[in-house]
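Handout, section 3.2

Students often ask what a structure token actually looks like in practice. Rather than define it abstractly, here is a full record for Site-specific integrase. The first block is the sequence as you would receive it.
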Amino acid sequence: MARPRLEVGTYGEIRCYPLKGGKVRAVTNYRDYDGVLRRVERTGTSDTGAKNNLKTALRDRARAVVGEEVADQTRVDVVADMWLRELDESGKAARTKRTYRESWERDLREPVGALLGRQVTVATAERVLRAIRDKAGLGSAKHAKVVLTGIMGMFVRYDALDTNPLREVGALGESKKPKTPAARLTRITWDDFLRLRAYLAAHPKAEQFDLVDLVDMFAAVGPRLGEFLALDWPRVREDSNTMLLEGTVIRLTGVGLYVQEHTKSAAGMRTLTIPTWAMDALRKRRVLATSRWVFPSSTGGLQDPDNTRKRLRKVLAGSEWEGLHPHAFRHLVATQLDAAGLTAREIADYLGHAQVSMTQDVYMNRGTVGETAARPLEGLLTETTGQALGRSCGRSAHDVLNRR
């Protein structure tokens, strides 16, 4: 009966032959990845040594053939370039691509770039990541771990390594980087908001920075800042009191500001029915508009979210709202809608959250939302005396509130 044919990438029985000088030669037949059976041999000082040397050669032979571009002796920076090219071609968000590339260049290239793939052990990876954690913070270390996991995963995919050492890296723990506590106000009440409006109306810089209308829209819609700055006039529908949030303003190195044609998640792509008082404010802006963007920069282009946050911090410095984060308005809107009896799903739809139950995600249409959500927001400003949109509260109000 004929002997079974060796499968590609496998070898037959290893035979050992003594050589002069006390050495031993180990020999076997190996079925290469082109289908050809070839004789492979290695020597050693004993049968065991020769066999081990031969098995190592066969292992490296398989890796060299299968992964023509990658072997365990390939430098990490070479594979990193391959991984980053693959990342660029992926469907990941532009901001994610930028974050990962910056993580490699800033935190990983120097400590691991010149290492060979087989030299990146679990201990090496942990040491590098903990050093990043202590120098740049836990967030940077987490990003670096994701990037290095992807790079070493490519070694595994090319059969250059058997396992990914990053899979065994332990928890990174707490950052040892000294932190300067920063005041951050993330929740406000509706009464807080009304006082804030009075403060902004009286602040000379607030009008210059176009913050008064912007804060009103925050309280009406509770948007993510980047999503709202991506809003253009064609997506404001005055006849139906709706707006379409369908993008995000981001900045990319070498590109500058641009609108990413999707929001943070699929749930963020939404059409909202907004309160009448909010649409009235937008109508007034539209009459004077000279840019396609609803809230443009001073030159008429896209407004940078980072600059907007800086301006808000500058105007609120020294006031009771110092440290106010734009996300506080998302909490404000959610609180108002919850108090009005809306369901968690309705609130999630209005804010563009994806965190609802699987049944709601899969079986319910969440495309156009907000009519019910708009009602409890509808009369909040008009019912408040002395707080009509556009009203100036005077310099004295600014002085009083600034001392609180």
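Discussion prompt for tutorial groups: The longest helix spans residues 47-66. How would you have guessed this from the sequence alone?
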